[in-house]
Amino acid sequence: MSTAAIEAGLLRARPEPVSLGEAFWVWLRIAALSFGGPAGQIAVMHRILVEEKRWIGEHRFLHALNYCMLLPGPEAQQLATYIGWLMHRTRGGIVAGTLFVLPGAISIMALSWIYVLYGHVGLVAGLFFGLKCAVLAVVLQAVVRIGSRSLKNSVMRTLAATAFVLIFFLAVPFPIIILSAGLIGFFGGRAGVPAFQIGGGHGAAKGSIVADADTLLGEALPAHASPTIGQSLRQAAVWLVLWLAPIAALLFLLGGSNVFTQIAVFFSTMAVVTFGGAYAVLAYVAQQAVEQYHWLTAKEMLDGLGMAETTPGPLIMVLQFVGFLGAYRHPGMLSPLLAGTLGGLLATWVTFVPCFLWIFLGAPFIERMRGNKALSGALSAITAAVVGVVLNLAVWFAVHTIFRSVRPFTAGPIHFDLPVAASVDPWALAISLAAIIAMFRLKVGIFTTLAGASTIGVILFLTGIVD
Fold first, then answer.
1. What is the pTM of this model?
2. What does the alpha-carbon distance between residue 247 and residue 267 come to, in Å, rounded to a whole number?
3. Please, what is the angle between helix 298-309 and helix 278-287, to 10°?
4. pLDDT tens-place string over residues 81-108
5. Strand pairing category for 406-411 and 414-419
6. How many C-beta atoms surround the C-beta of residue 116 within 10 A?
7. What is the DSSP letter of 291?
8. 3-state class of 74 per DSSP?
9. pLDDT tens digits, 409-433
């Protein structure tokens, strides 16, 4: 037993080995409690896996989180996959990663059906009206949370401001902004510029530190964490086939203009460039899905984000709703509901299958890069740029929530949606302001705020005040 553990009062025997069957129920519990975006989800994992079960120690947990912060995709789901893999090899990673997604996927699919079948009924319409008004406060909180962690100097603040201007006023694609920021940070960190040596991560819950030596995994590296080149290549081949074979089949059978092919290609691209978490990529997805593909409207995108905020699992599950509506409105020879269901499942598949590839292929090798200054600088710069991208998302949501109509404004390379002042929705404005006050001033939780806003929306619709 370590000295740190004795001083912290953690005089308990090292946990006994846990079978994959026993771990299944723990991962299912974590999945069911994973509300509130990546920060809340990571806090739940830390409380259960580190403090309660002591499967993994504090430093090893944060080390794994740092790996996932370097990868594209939802870091909370990848962290679950990583720890599951570390404990029970590939099968453990598949169980942990799949269970983390499953409750949210089922919930969003059920809500998508309800939305298209009963979305205009007063009760349901009011529910989503309140949700989308409160989402603005949630996104603003994300801006503040990420910004307070990453914008520690003028270089980082400049990167954030530049990212906002590029994506909001000049419509520069999200991947270009993130990749450019990463390159700036990479070379800045490599050159030893202090401004880029900040690091990132959501952090873990405060309290007594659980030493790695006193946990189930201990300090040693498991044998399966040092694969041969042949094993790594086989892993890569399996997951690449699972990911890319459906896309190739759709391209061959249906062509590039078919909605299912578009969903597969678009969300596969997002899976590769989604650095910085869900809030960052949602701004780009919303703009592309609404303005380029016309799969859904801006207000429907807000409704989908409200669904994802109030259901367990990764916030990026909103992409399933986007895929559902895209296929529902372009069903071809299928019934709309069947097309929507397949479109939603396809979006989920191509979004999350790559996450398993990144973990199973990269985790053993990424560990060797720990402490690399160039990579640390790249992560710091990307996190700073994400602040500007998420601020763009907040502004975009505000414009399409509080105002009933917008008009395009163009001046040279500048192009953005300008709200029509006379079209302001007073009830949407009031609920949005109330949600902001509740979360920022009164410190009310996300779930409580969203529930309160939804209740107000239902009352407004049922009483005929809003229609």
1. 0.72
2. 11
3. 160
4. 999 998 898 999 999 999 999 988 998 9
5. antiparallel
6. 16
7. I
8. coil
9. 898 889 888 889 889 999 999 999 9
